[in-house]
Amino acid sequence: MDFNKVAQQLLPLLGGRENIASAAHCATRLRLVLVDDAKADKEAIDKLEGVKGCFRNAGQMQIIFGTGVVNKVYTAFIQAAGISEATKGETAQAATQKLNPAQRIARLLSNIFVPIIPAIVASGVLMGLLGMMKTYGWVNPDSALFVMLDMFSSAAFIILPILIGFTAAREFGGNPYLGATLGGILTHPALTNAWGVAGGFKTMDFFGLDVAMIGYQGTVFPVLLAVWFMSLLEKRLRRVIPDALDIILTPFLTVIISGFVAMLIIGPAGRALGDGISLVLSTLIAHAGWLAGLLFGGLYSVIVVTGIHHSFHAIEAGLLGNPAIGVNFLLPIWSMANVAQAGACLAVWFKTRDIKVRSIVLPSAFSGLLGITEAAIFGVNLRYMKPFIAGILGGAAAGAWVVISHVNMTAVGLTALPGMAIVQASSLVNYIIGMAIAFGIGFLLSLLLKYKVEASA
After folding, report:
1. Model pTM?
2. Among 26, 122, 155, 249, which one carries the catalytic annotation?
């Protein structure tokens, strides 16, 4: 591929140099913020050599080139456009100005939770493997090795408020280390562990107000709300405190005031909010049963198109941190939707002889089976629409199955085939059956529906 040629061809299709506000790239996509989105010729961009898909999302024009290619195209593109390099964060910040309030909230939650997913996934995978070993009697649960690994597996969930406190403060414009400190206050050893409340807990008389000495290990909403308040307070204090005293008084007053507000007001209210959302979802699953799985499994791919699906990490983490629930029953449903889109995508390979389309379909379908569906959805299924609908139907059917069979996961972040590592051992067989249902229905419907497949589509 001639990267300079692709860059030169791409520039006029985006409205020219003057229409490029910012440019960056991630592992697979060129991310552009345009002055006027209407000037971009999406259909023509789709036809360019190397382009595996093009879509607008979260205020950005995102063009999929794939790993190892996008960085070379990006280098050639910024030279052709005569613009300076921008980080992904700077481009995202520019794109945020073009979002509506709902999209901004979704983006905010995504920016807070995505960075900590590796820690949760690492703990969740280990927790899932240990659960499988214990269920099948492969290891002695009283051995020193198992006990230590069990400690490792729960660590991320115990300090989850600290991790969230750091990333949330960074997003809210506060000091990330003060945010982590506030998360530490909410998980202090002096407080009864959130999972040990059933064994009883102490209360303190704070000027006539009974304060429950319960920690917030594994919770989400209390620390989010507390850090939001802390960030606002810190900004206000910096405006009024003299510069000479700022480094001492601002963090001191921020921690003291935010700590009291978090423990007395926001913490209990945030716990109630998180428990309420978890209760609503649990009630829907318990009473609507397979209908809830059908609805959630069908709608998830549509939600992915809007770009707000990352905000579900907050709810999922809340489910895991809730002692009354302790499992993630939403992620198996999302997994089914992803696998169904992968199956629908693969069917397109059998419906065309076009080399360019086939070169896009296979890696996109494989990526979908690993839980990353952007290439399959935007690069293939939405392009021809009927495969996307087939994926929706496959996800709905399999979503109903995993709810009926009570499939649960022990972490967030992993879906589709990698998700097998965090599925509860007792649910693994039903999870695999669900993936077979999702992939099979998505594939067969996409294969049987009539639509024209060509590179110029």
Report:
1. 0.60
2. 26
